[in-house]
Design brief:
Blueprint lengths: L1 E8 L2 H15 L4 E4 L20 H9 L2 E6 L5 H10 L4 E7 L15 E7 L9 E3 H7 L18 E3 L5 H20 L5 E6 L7 H14 L5 E6 H10 L6 E4 L1 H15 L6 E5 L5 E5 L16 H13 L3 H17 L13 H13 L2
Helix pairs in contact: 1-11, 5-6, 7-8, 9-10, 10-11
This protein binds adenosine-5'-triphosphate (ATP).
Length: 361
């Protein structure tokens, strides 16, 4: 029996995690689901915003085989900050796969099956920001590519983007592993990399060339590079030509939303986030969707497909394949889809249909 900690976050995160946990339990999967509290009775503020996760919950989540997270919002950004930053879940996996019946905005989406690998721990998102006046003080010699200093700017702010060789190598190796596993299942064995190395010739170029070097060391894989704006366009125009696309943090965040939307919408886009020593947490790409929260109409697919990744991670391949096939079947049938997919089903009705499809295999 594997132990999974469920942390719903807020908004629709609560509804979709409830639905997924109910399904895994009702399906008799060999997972024990724990639901420790997300906040202390006297909540402690988190430096990342919202409240901090209680220490006892952190311990339970650290010791679990995996964590299933719902969606972060203003009061639970501390929860996701702990999962991603403090637990250093540096390797983001964001598949975008079209299942017939999904509501893709493209005319011919059949065959879209790609994965964005997002470096989760570096880049610009750790949030080292400040006042431009302070930067002028500490970096008086800073020059742009035309040799201009910072004095030409008036009042403003700055943000630091960090790229390390070690971080780029780590995510590149991870992307190669993913590409290899996909190749074994019929994938194309191509690792694409999206940067803006033509403009950011030190930071993005380090990432670009490090990934290129690592992929060059894998004779079974092929490397491709796209400038990030071109990658966004290609994801819409030629999504079927993409296999694995490895990106720095912010580009991965943005491109995985594009990829998810192209496959069928934010409601269907799952993710896995891997740290060291096999620790990982799983979550939908979408946020707490305050506009539809509490109405029982959130699409549970993103979370159910995150459970597919979670089960795979736990070594429960049979359950994982079966759950994916059940989701695919519900889309093929088209009778129990939530409003974002053009149907009228509630979250619970759709996950009940997936459970039926799971049982009937
Ligand atoms: P947050 O501020 O928590 O990130 P948000 O509304 O800015 O929330 P998302 O939660 O990612 O961003 O959602 C964007 C929109 O996509 C929502 O307004 C909602 O209409 C739609 N959406 C997201 N997830 C789902 C889902 N699971 N089912 C149906 N619609 C969804």
């Amino acid at each position: 029996m594997k132990t999974v900690v469920a942390l719903p976050g807020e908004g629709i995160g609560i509804e979709v995690v409830d639905a997924a946990c109910e399904l895994m339990t009702a399906a008799g999967m060999p997972v024990k689901i724990l639901t420790p509290p997300q906040r202390d009775p006297n909540p402690v503020p988190s430096p990342a915003g919202g409240h901090a996760l209680p220490e006892s919950t952190r311990r339970t989540a650290r010791d679990a085989d995996a964590v299933l997270f719902g969606a972060a919002g203003p009061s639970t950004s501390g929860v996701v900050a702990w999962l991603r930053w403090e637990m250093e879940a540096w390797g983001g996996v964001r598949p975008a796969k079209f299942y017939p019946g999904m509501r893709s905005p493209l005319a011919d989406p059949e065959g879209i099956d790609l994965v964005v690998i997002r470096e989760n721990s570096e880049g610009i998102y750790p949030g080292r920001e400040g006042d431009l006046a302070e930067l002028k003080r500490v970096m008086p010699g800073s020059r742009d590519r035309l040799g201009r200093g910072l004095d030409g700017y008036g009042e403003g702010r700055y943000a630091v983007k960090v790229v390390t060789r070690q971080g780029a190598e780590r995510i590149a190796r991870f992307a190669c592993d993913v590409a290899r596993k996909r190749k074994a299942r019929g994938g194309r064995g191509v690792v694409g990399c999206a940067t803006k190395s033509n403009v950011l010739r030190q930071s993005d170029a380090l990432f670009h060339h490090t990934v290129e070097e690592i992929v060059a060391g894998c004779p079974d894989l092929r490397f491709e590079h796209f400038h990030v704006d071109d990658a966004a366009r290609r994801l819409i125009r030629f999504p079927k030509a993409m296999d694995v696309l490895v990106c720095m943090n912010q580009y991965g965040d943005i491109l995985s939303d594009v990829a998810g939307e192209v496959a069928g919408g934010l409601g269907v886009a799952p993710s896995a986030n891997h740290g060291d020593d096999g620790w990982a947490y799983f979550e939908s790409v979408h946020g707490s969707a305050p506009d539809i929260a509490g109405r029982g109409i959130a699409n549970p697919t993103a979370t159910l497909l995150s459970c597919v990744l979670l089960l795979d991670h736990l070594g429960l391949e049979t359950e994982s394949r079966r759950l994916e096939a059940a989701v695919a079947r519900v889309y093929r049938d088209g009778r129990a889809l939530t409003p974002d997919q053009g149907g009228r089903a509630t979250t619970k009705a759709m996950s009940a249909a997936v459970l039926d499809a799971y049982r009937s295999q």
